[in-house]
Write a structure and sequence with these properties.
There is one protein chain. The chain is globular, with a radius of gyration of 12 Å. The protein is built from two helices and three strands; from the N terminus they run βαββα. It has one domain (2-57). By secondary structure, it is α+β, with helices and mostly antiparallel strands. This is Phosphoribulokinase. It comes from hydrothermal vent metagenome.
């Protein structure tokens, strides 16, 4: 299963670099990261953790 995500303002190359090789992640273009669907939790964790941390410190 292949899944892609488009999120403006997120460094998708940094996300791809943090994923294990088994995820077979690559950038299709500047706004689309393609990876194996079983790694969706990993991708969301990498992308959302900094956003959540920033929100918590701004409280």
């Amino acid at each position: 299963m292949v899944t892609s995500v488009r999120i403006a303002g997120v460094d998708l190359q940094a996300v791809a670099d943090k994923l294990p090789a088994e995820a077979m992640a690559f950038l299709q273009n500047d706004t689309t990261l393609v990876y194996k669907g079983s790694f969706m939790v990993d991708v969301m964790d990498i992308m959302l953790t900094p956003i959540i941390d920033k929100l918590m410190t701004n409280k």
